[in-house]
Amino acid sequence: MHNPSPDNSQSTRYPVSVKGVLIHENNVLLLKNERDEWELPGGKLELYETPEDCVVREIEEETGLRIVAGQIMRPYVFYISNVTPVLILPFHCHCKNFDAIRISHEHKEIGTFDVHRLDQLKLPPGYRNTILAALELEDTTPQP
C-alpha cells in the first residue's frame, strides 16, 4: 500500500520513534501495544535528545532494563493504522540478559520470543525485518 507523505506544512509534526532490538539467546524482547500488535521497545525522540540517549531512556522506562545502544540500523517509515506516518530509527542494542524485565503502564504485555518464530506473532513487517537484520549483526558484533 502506498501512503502519501506529509506535505511541508505537516513536516514539523512528523514524529520520530527510536526503537531498540534486544536479542538474548535467540529471543527478542517485544511489547504489546494498544492495537494488540507486538512492537520493539522505544519511543518518541524528545527535542534536544540524541537518538542513542532516547533509546536508552525509553527502554529503561518501558522494561526496567539498562542497555547499551549499538549500531543504528536501516530507518524506515511506518504508518500507524495505515494513516499516521512515523519515522522509525532502530538500533541494535545490547544487554546482559532479560532477567530484570518488567512492564510499564505504556503496554499491555511484555515477552521474549524466538526470533525464528516471528511469523506466529501480530508483528508489523518493518519490525520483523529489523529483528532479522539485527540477528545477522548478533553473529558479528562483540557483546559489551
Chain-wise SSE layout:
Blueprint: E1 16-24, E2 27-32, E3 38-39, E4 42-44, H1 51-63, E5 68-72, E6 76-80, E7 84-94, E8 109-114, H2 125-138
Parallel strand pairs: 1-7
Antiparallel strand pairs: 1-2, 1-4, 2-3, 2-8, 5-7, 6-7
The tally of strands reads 8
Percentage of residues in DSSP E strands = 25-35%
Indicate the radius of gyration in whole angstroms: 15 Å
SS-derived structural category: alpha+beta
N→C terminal distance: 40 Å
Uncertain segments: none
Shape summary = globular
What helical percentage do the residues reach? 10-25%
Order of helices and strands: EEEEHEEEEH
User: Helical segment tally?
Assistant: 2
Give a quick account of the main beta sheet: strands, pairing sense, barrel closure.
Answer: 8 strands, mixed
Q: Quick check: average pLDDT?
A: 86
Care to describe what's here?
A hairpin with a 3-residue loop joins β6 (76-80) and β7 (84-94). This protein has 2 helices and 8 strands, in the order ββββαββββα. With 144 residues, the chain is α+β, with helices and mostly antiparallel strands. Strands 1, 2, 3, 4, 5, 6, 7 and 8 form an 8-stranded mixed beta sheet that branches. The longest helix has 14 residues, at 125-138. It is globular. It has helices at 51-63, 125-138, and strands at 16-24, 27-32, 38-39, 42-44, 68-72, 76-80, 84-94, 109-114.
Quick summary of this structure?
This protein is of the alpha+beta class and 144 residues long. The protein has helices at 51-63, 125-138; strands spanning 16-24, 27-32, 38-39, 42-44, 68-72, 76-80, 84-94, 109-114.
